[in-house]
Inverse folding.
């Protein structure tokens, strides 16, 4: 019975995420059609956008290696290949379950403890969270208040809360790295009865994360990580700006940075498979802060359609290529990420 319940958990997560995604699409549709009535666009616009996606994927897959090499011996080619596979599954799996793919693959391929790589992933996510919040606060001041002032205040509140959450996680990592003993001792107080095996597994994982955080705190790799992060986000903004202008949405680079920030604030939320609904909602809200509502529904629908199709399509394409290079089978990978029942 327990094994059957464990096997049903992924399907329950999938069902919940599908409901969330579908509800978000319905909510966003009055503002922005997920599929515009006329999706035609100049081929040159798509060619230019595709060209910008090359450094977008390359920088994203490379930058984490500058931190990863601090916690284990992982060649940069392998880090890029694993990164491309991991980002594909982050995009496809619901509720951000794909975040576990890269640590799992590094553990399988290079023997680096799962928790040590999770520390790298956590710091990567924290960095991106701070970058997104900084982009929002820096560019929101350059734009006049939109007609819907309440919406602007809500987004500002969301950005503030997001910054606070990422700061709290960062403080937690620092405390765990420097003073792991008291926290692990507190956790062991619950290691009784049926909770014992689970508490012991969590305790072991916290020990690995603390080791990884300590290795990262000793320096090395951060300047290169910071530079590639800046280049990655600059490419992200430039790609959205180029595509928006080709779709008839006249954004400045500052406006494109603001829309990028709001879109990624939305994507930080756990959504459905392939972030359907969350992605379109983030684009719609970001555009409402810089262009009239009529432009959001017309050119914005076209922009969201091609941005989503091209980004997701290219992420899946390079991810499948990388997965083939690693000789991975998707069903085996999903099986390894599924919860197991350790009982008899």
């Amino acid at each position: 019975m327990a094994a059957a319940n464990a096997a049903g958990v992924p399907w329950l997560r999938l069902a919940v995420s599908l409901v969330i995604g579908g509800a978000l699409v319905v909510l966003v549709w009055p503002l922005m059609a997920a599929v515009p009535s006329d999706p035609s666009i100049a081929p040159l616009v798509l060619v230019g956008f595709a060209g910008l996606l090359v450094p977008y994927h390359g920088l994203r897959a490379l930058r984490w290696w500058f931190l990863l090499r601090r916690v284990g011996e992982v060649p940069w080619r392998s880090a890029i290949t694993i990164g491309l596979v991991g980002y594909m599954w982050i995009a496809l799996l619901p509720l951000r379950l794909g975040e576990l793919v890269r640590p799992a693959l590094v553990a399988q391929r290079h023997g680096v403890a799962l928790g040590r790589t999770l520390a790298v992933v956590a710091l990567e996510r924290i960095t991106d969270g701070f970058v997104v919040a900084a982009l929002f606060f820096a560019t929101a001041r350059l734009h006049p208040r939109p007609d819907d002032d309440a919406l602007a205040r809500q987004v500002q509140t969301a950005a503030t809360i997001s910054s606070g959450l990422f700061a709290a996680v960062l403080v937690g990592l620092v405390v765990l790295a420097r003073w792991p003993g008291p926290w692990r001792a507190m956790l062991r107080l619950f290691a009784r009865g049926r909770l014992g095996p689970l508490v012991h597994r969590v305790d072991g994982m916290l020990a690995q994360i603390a080791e990884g955080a300590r290795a990262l705190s000793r320096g090395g790799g951060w300047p290169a990580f910071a530079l590639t992060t800046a280049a990655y986000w600059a490419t992200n903004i430039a790609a959205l700006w180029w595509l928006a202008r080709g779709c008839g949405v006249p954004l400045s680079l500052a406006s494109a940075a603001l829309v990028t920030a709001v879109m990624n604030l939305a994507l930080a939320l756990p959504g459905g498979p392939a972030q359907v609904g969350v992605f379109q909602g983030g684009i719609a809200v970001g555009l409402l802060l810089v262009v009239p509502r009529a432009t959001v529904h017309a050119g914005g629908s076209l922009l969201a359609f091609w941005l989503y199709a091209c980004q997701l399509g290219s992420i899946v394409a390079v991810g499948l290529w990388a997965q083939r290079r690693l000789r991975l089978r998707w069903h085996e990978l999903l099986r390894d990420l599924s919860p197991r029942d350790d009982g008899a």
Remarks:
- The chain has a mean pLDDT of 84.
- The first helix runs from residue 2 to 28.
- Residues 249 and 299 are 6 Å apart (CA to CA).
- The two ends are 11 Å apart (CA to CA).
